[in-house]
Amino acid sequence: MPALPTLPALPPPALPGQPLRAVDTPALVLDLDAFARNLERMQSACDRAGVQLRPHAKAHKCPDIALAQVARGAVGICCQKVSEALPFVAAGIRDLHVSNQVVGGSKLALLAALARHAHLSVCVDDARQVEALAEACATAGSRLSVLVEIDIGQGRCGVADGTAALRLVEAIDRHPQLVFRGLQAYHGGIQHLRGHGERREAAARAAQRTAAALRILQGAGVRSEVVTGGGTGSVEFDLASGVYTELQPGSYVFMDADYGRNQGAAAADGLRFEHSLFLAATVMSVAAASRAEPRVIVDAGLKSVATDSGLPLPWRDGARDGRLDYLAANDEHGIVAPAAGAGAGADALPALGEQMLLVPGHCDPTLNLYETLVTVRGGTVAGLWPVAARGHSR
Amino acid sequence: MPALPTLPALPPPALPGQPLRAVDTPALVLDLDAFARNLERMQSACDRAGVQLRPHAKAHKCPDIALAQVARGAVGICCQKVSEALPFVAAGIRDLHVSNQVVGGSKLALLAALARHAHLSVCVDDARQVEALAEACATAGSRLSVLVEIDIGQGRCGVADGTAALRLVEAIDRHPQLVFRGLQAYHGGIQHLRGHGERREAAARAAQRTAAALRILQGAGVRSEVVTGGGTGSVEFDLASGVYTELQPGSYVFMDADYGRNQGAAAADGLRFEHSLFLAATVMSVAAASRAEPRVIVDAGLKSVATDSGLPLPWRDGARDGRLDYLAANDEHGIVAPAAGAGAGADALPALGEQMLLVPGHCDPTLNLYETLVTVRGGTVAGLWPVAARGHSR
Q1: Which residue in A has a C-alpha nearest to residue B148's C-alpha?
Q2: Is the pLDDT at A77 greater than 90, yes or no?
Q3: Which residue segments constitute the domains of chain B, with CATH numbers given?
Q4: Which of A247, B9, B166, B261 has the lowest CB atom count within 10 Å?
């Protein structure tokens, strides 16, 4: 019997130098020019305001992107989970803030071990978390910076006010291996308010709560070296608030369809970001293209794009393709139809085998589906960037 | 300067022999006893009806599970994408049906190469797909079985009727490297109709369309050796329809909260499946537990559980924990509150550090978030099963 041929390996989604249309789909594509402009705009805005930028790596999970952010002036990065920080430390990022509470022995041991390799800070909102951090650091022989998280209106994590924060500062100060650095004050809900005015007012209320907590700490002689928070949707208000020393936006790198629905300021303020992230999909069935409800089927569904903040938007020649809608996502199928009310008919539908680009509804969980980001410049594949922290939710 | 210590590695989520409560969260946990009962029930029902079982591996993406299904009598498995098939072929599965259209040179080359290692079949709904399959097989020196997909009401993939199917059979027959095997007739929408009666009626209409297409093929002297389709929600009707030779359910292995909302038959028919898949999460903040809207925060959000078909349901002592609701998923946070209208107050909330089990809303995209499935028997970790096809959407 002849020997069996070697089992084929899964080829990469693309090779440098290939045209974008040759990328094996579904794939996540990063437009390097738009990406670079987004990075510059955010860094410049922070520099002008004298506020430090610590971008949130939960949006991209990609060490190549973190290194590009730090190279442009970011002081470090945020991670949301301890395991998420690991590939960034391995890639050489030396200042990381875990913008979250860390509970559980395995996570605490990893955090304390990582603190021997990089400057790491973490949030607390309970005295028992402080004791557990101190114990893990004592065991590992490491030191951690600690930020007290205050709830400025989201009702998620964070102590209620400055008085409660003060009690945690006192708990932190009892442990020489823990260093109180300041406050985290983040309100995720503000980021996605659509109106520019309502975002401004909500951000102002949140900043007032942060300022009130800071006054209580100052009154007790406690200095908060860092006040960190903010996101892509509120960054213009956060920069002007006078409260934050550091901002942690993430999505500005990519812009997703959800953030795209936010209403910008009337005046151009230099803080507009561009869509740089695209889902490349291929039409794999046109059997229903000429029926009463014309549609084509693309090879990207729920497993290729997050739909929690809306379905992806068809994109063509640098703008929303208004002739088409992505109607529904099944596990591995996407249904694309002529846009309702756009006067488009079946002739607007792409052909069998044609590649479509789509703007994901929500970038963070979409990145979390992929091992690889295909970078593109001028319609040609530039390289492959590992999404090294994909799935690192522990 | 002393040498830096070695960078720690990410530890596995659990070790065999540990108690379930020691699993590092978020983690996906499989109850092996419930899992085995689900496999037995489905295989027995198919055996009784004389219908072959070809479970859909898109639900689990896990070779250990596929091997268990085949060991109990499944004729092989379904995959939804070519790349998804690869780890199953590598694990020794020898009969795989790609229940989808395959378009694109890279995918076709991989499919044709895999066909040298295992029996592979694939769907078509366009003559151009037939020509491309023939060319890929000619290049690879392999043979493929081909099924014509017919649309039985979903309006997704599949030709409209038997006459259109017949034209594709003729196209397939022109290529010696392609073998026509029969029809795929699947209607995903039926699976999630809640009422038992409406599911029965919709399945009956779909079976009638399949039977009509088969009559046209038979009239032209074409034998369909295989008629494949069906899913967990319609399997009892599909088994009794007399139309299908083979069924492709996937979710029965796990049962998710969405399928759990389907209304069963009035009479016990042996086709009830149990929840065997759980999301283990840990309470990491209780700062808001004693406020006006009491809640605790768990460490599992959008990146740890798919929410497209509803939020996960709290589970305790073998049943839905009616005192608690999982209210909302942020990227890495889950908000848990006393269940609305259940008369439960803040005292029902779990404590800081406590582990919660949750039934995922939709199993398929949830499995696609994890590298590893933690298997548990009687509250003790039994092992770790790789979710080897995770992310294999190409």
Answers
A1: A287
A2: yes
A3: 20-27+273-386 (2.40.37.20), 51-255 (3.20.20.10)
A4: B9
